[in-house]
Amino acid sequence: MGSFGTNTTPYRKTARNHFRESHIEIRYLASGSNGETYLAIATKDFDQAHEAYKEHGCMDTLVRQLRQSLVVAKFLHPRGPADGNDLQNEINVLKMLGTRPNITNLVDYHVDGDSQWFTMEYVPEGSLRHFVKACYSKIDLGMQWGIALQIVETFLYLHFGITDSKTMTPLNKSWGLWRYADVHCGNMLLRYSDSDTGPEVRIVLADFGRMRECTIEEDEFKYIHPDCEECLRVTRRYGLLPKLTEAETPLWEWAEKLNKYQFEGDFQLLEFLNEFLEVARKEQGRHKKHMPYMISEYLRCQPPTNNDMLRLVGQHRY
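== Protein kinase domain-containing protein ==
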């Protein structure tokens, strides 16, 4: 998977031209401070699905295969840093994080001078921001606690390499001190899943272009702790999920405590994270209900339609 080139010749293919040799661009998705993203599919995956369709003639199978093969392609923003370090950094971070259910996973990449791109899994159900705006009146307290719980567990992994929030044991002792530095609900994607207790919303964190490893000299807690605090508030400044930030809720009281102690070291941070997780699990269990039908249907309808899938060829974006 992926390649880092050493091409030093005067001519080098642009990232988009190089990408189109192996992928089909479907449509533009979004633009950030240092990158542009497109919905795409690898040509080999498209051809494989098409050959299977010609052999078996099953339209449902074709659509399902195409949907499962979709990826998000990211290119360095035309007005981004000339050296492209942000894009290379994001590739390295995603390689380091590995395959996790609560982060967008790296699929492929190419870096050769200024010709840079990478692809990651496509999470079609949209972002937490859009979800809250569309379904706010139907999001109950149990679902809110569940969302907050997942966000905190994700940041435990990012900052400390902790994969089991019940034992709070790091994945390995050599895990560095990392800061994510781009917390907002637009970077928190949703994954719809069916469980034994009914439909569930799973949080998937995206966009790691600003994530950096810190050193002791960099005053790492100055960067790490505000991220966790802002995450726990579920980005209060955006006005989303305000019930989580009301003064009478345990979450708000906990966030205020975290704010007070945010510069006093990771031991206190982990202690408070553990305290929050215990409260969140209890509150989620106490308030959890079956997901409302309209929310379930909203999430199910987010993936592209059959017609979108069948119009892939001939709709490359140049």
